[in-house]
Amino acid sequence: MGRSAKTLEHNTFNRHRIRQSKGDIVFHIVNYTLFTLFTFICVLPFYYLFINTISDNELVKTGSIILIPKGLHLENYISVLQTRGLGRAALVSIGRTVIGTAFTVTASALVGYLVTKREMWGRKFWYRAIVITMYFNAGLIPWYMNMVMLGLNNNFWAYIIPGIVAPYNIILVKTYIESIPSALEESASLDGAGYFTIFTRIIWPLCTPILATIAIFCAIGHWNAFTDTLMLMTDEKNFTLQYVLYRYLNQTNNLQSAMQSGGNLSGLDLTQSLSPRAVKMTISMVVVFPILFVYPFLQRFFVKGIMIGAVKG
Q1: DSSP labels, 181-194
Q2: pTM of the predicted protein model
Q3: Comparing C-alpha atoms, which of 128, 181, 180 is closest to residue 308?
Q4: How many helices (DSSP H) and strands (DSSP E) are in the chain?
């Protein structure tokens, strides 16, 4: 009885199985091959960076490390992680990334929702005033003077306030909200829900994909930024991780140049720490790792959000 049941199940499976033509088989083989090759191309740079950070620095200097690490050590990471003020700088960068992203995403969602309401006073004017800032820029010096006059130099909020209202993000949210069926808002309005209730209970949850996409863009921007620190900050307590590592790299380059020119560098450790190429790669790994760690958790939302406008509701 059991044997006949298995035979019947096998015959049913064969009957319902979709037969693939030779063209389909060739297509799948080529498709998987290309995607495997593309994945390898994406992973290879990070692998190359990593093996150069743990290999002998003299071999790294000469470009001898290609695919297999040689002379394994962790001195580069130890040297970078012992940089003065690195812990505080890491906290500043994390705080800037988290707070700045939260503020920008919330403002983008709220303003994007408001400019979709026809009953909003001066809706077209305010929307155009926001969009026009994408085409005109006052320049670096006026920006610096404005930040100083606002008292944002040597101030942590200089990292947060200028990026709260992001025109491009507002456009993305506005377009996404307009693709949501208006019947959802109308039914909630008939039940007595106000704008704030509709926004928090209906619009915000439905906008999760596009908001996650914006969050990725904002987080990467905040995490990688260091020019505002370079121009506005002189107090070390406000230095970001990227700026501290940038200064460490410059010091390494300067020491290396002094050593090559025959300067007096007695008392300094010139073994593992004076390899600018290895230091650059180590710093790149230290900076990139947090983004690589966070991105997989937001990838599914990012894929949905990036398809904005492809299918209308």
Answers
A1: -HHHHHHHHHTT--
A2: 0.77
A3: 180
A4: 15, 0
